[in-house]
């Protein structure tokens, strides 16, 4: 079976995108893992299907590079909006549905994509760690020198801690700076460091913002580029009106034959 694919990346978080509005593409876990394999296939952190959904512009179906369907991917959400625009499904605004519910997005004049993220009502905080779910579960770990960390070894150990089993958790290492935060990520399902993680930087921005009610805007630096997170914290602690903004770039397209 031959498949026409598109490759996109958002701050180095890269994805294979497939237009499956006709419903003709049937992939199993092994197919997806092979396509995402950087040595044997196309290579990507994940794969997304764009499908039809009544009442929305489209549905986003996201798979990690291990072939398993996963939870929400923020950078993937921004990339699939850019992909939908390339397919002429939309112009500058999108309303789509993903595994965590409905999302709204805008393509800005400078080409960046701004994506609405899910509200967050609960954070579990300790001295150096915060756990919260921004569409995917994240463990935020504050460090002094993020560039010097062995993210893979440390992230893998934290990802498999007993309290997070059986599904595990994504781990974000965060260094605080005066003007921004710096984030490196170990992603479950990829089982490696990724250059960026949209739900992860959103979680990091929330975990490091003041706990008083107000509007917050955080600049985030990742190994793959810069992102921006905006949200409102209400008097009850709800984090709402959450927006993740950053680049979403087309890389290439082609044909691949499934093994």
Short overview:
This protein has 259 residues and is an alpha+beta fold. The protein has helices at 29-36, 74-86, 151-159, 198-208, and strands at 2-10, 13-19, 46-51, 58-64, 93-98, 101-107, 113-117, 124-125, 129-133, 137-142, 170-176, 181-187, 192-194, 214-222, 225-233, 239-246, 249-257.
Write the layout of secondary structure elements.
Layout: E1 2-10, E2 13-19, H1 29-36, E3 46-51, E4 58-64, H2 74-86, E5 93-98, E6 101-107, E7 113-117, E8 124-125, E9 129-133, E10 137-142, H3 151-159, E11 170-176, E12 181-187, E13 192-194, H4 198-208, E14 214-222, E15 225-233, E16 239-246, E17 249-257
Strand content is: 35-45%
Number of strands: 17
Main pleated sheet: 17 strands, mixed
Q: Which runs of at least 5 residues are low in confidence (pLDDT < 50)? A: none
Kindly report the average pLDDT value: 97
Please give the alpha-carbon distance between the first and last residues. Answer: 8 Å
CATH homologous superfamily of the largest domain? Diaminopimelate Epimerase, Chain A, domain 1
The chain-level structural class is alpha+beta
CATH architecture of the largest domain: Roll
The H/E string reads EEHEEHEEEEEEHEEEHEEEE
Q: How helix-rich are the residues, as a percent range?
A: 10-25%
Q: Label the overall shape.
A: globular
The helix count comes to 4
CATH class of the largest domain: Alpha Beta
Describe this structure as you would to a colleague.
With 259 residues, this protein is α+β, with helices and mostly antiparallel strands. It folds into two domains: 2-107 and 248-257, Roll (Diaminopimelate Epimerase, Chain A, domain 1); 124-246, Diaminopimelate Epimerase, Chain A, domain 1. The chain is built from four helices and 17 strands. The protein has helices at residues 29-36, 74-86, 151-159, 198-208, and strands spanning 2-10, 13-19, 46-51, 58-64, 93-98, 101-107, 113-117, 124-125, 129-133, 137-142, 170-176, 181-187, 192-194, 214-222, 225-233, 239-246, 249-257. The protein has a 17-stranded mixed β-sheet that branches. A hairpin with a 3-residue loop joins strand 8 (124-125) and strand 9. The longest helix is centred in the first third of the chain and has 13 residues, at 74-86. The model has no long low-confidence stretch (mean pLDDT 97).
